[in-house]
Design a protein that fits this description.
CATH class of the domain at 233-374: Alpha Beta
Number of strands: 11
Helix content: 40-55%
Length: 384
Amino acid sequence: MDAFFVSVELRTRPELRGKPVIVGFPAERSVVLSASYEARATGVKSAMPMSIAMRRCPSAVIINPRHTEYYEVSGRLMEIFASITDLVEPLSVDEAFLDVGGAIRRLGSPMDIGHLIRRRVHSELGITASVGIASTKFVAKIASTRCKPDGILQIDAEDSVPYLHSLPVGALWGVGGKTAEVLSRLGIRTVADVAATPLASLKKVLGASGEHVHRLSMGIDPRPVTPTRLEKSIGAEETFSVDTADQALLHRELLRLSHRTAIRLRSSGMLARTVALKLRYSDFSTVTRSRTVQTPVDSAQLIYQVAVQLLESLGTRSMSVRLVGVRAEQLEPAGQTSLQLSLDRRDDNWRAAEQALDRVSERFGSKTLLPARLLEPGKPPADA
């Protein structure tokens, strides 16, 4: 998808189309989650500290993220993909590989299918997608990047190597900024330069990844589209704008993060057998604790209860907390797990209540349903 989080936000704020928009919290320690192409033109990038982004683009409109909305749209996006082919390999919430070989007789050529996907994404979700078509995953990924935003590009098999060799070395997977600098000092600046470099020389410079990079430079990528890729864990974390030792504030943030995690669990049809807590202190030391529960969970309240127990088990520390996170681990499909009735009926009541909120949000599109404890006086409800 093109600037996914921003695109989702612009569906309800069309007056911001064509303007620089950044999704993220306007706090010194927050980072850019998504930026419109107008903001990117000023040098703003994803994962950039918000303080730098706001200096580079002071006219940008800052929108607080609504993660629940993004995951709902992501789920509908994956349903569109699944209607095209069974061979879908998600890469993230807004991106996937599709093997459409088996759909050609039914839906037309790969280019026809690419146009169909883009039309459906736009008409059903109100956002735009860029589609790359190739005979390998690696080249398809490059094609999708090169035709952004809102484009489509097909690179035929016989054209793959010439096309790759016209690109800078940074286009190769595994070649980040530092690696590109190392290669540049050796006179290797393009993919063609990589292909012309003896494998032994690349291994000497890049180690074990040298062979992988060399193969990609020749267009060799035998990896199939792998449709069954279950997430190993689901979670959320938050960096405070100011370090805190306030236990009430920590509990409040744990509740917020538990709801974000639980919503993702339920939308993915997953249950968690283990709940983990992550704390990063003011000296940047990080502590993690986890606990396996007797019955798999997808309820925010149950995740929160375990997270609070883990927090209390750490005792009181002299250092303030910089970051807090909650993660659900040891995931398993809900349909394959028989949920036992809890010994405490209240646990089942919490699950039922949260599932009811899911249904309300799905039907009416409301994203402001959240525990009263998370409401701040004088402020509009934030996404949970």
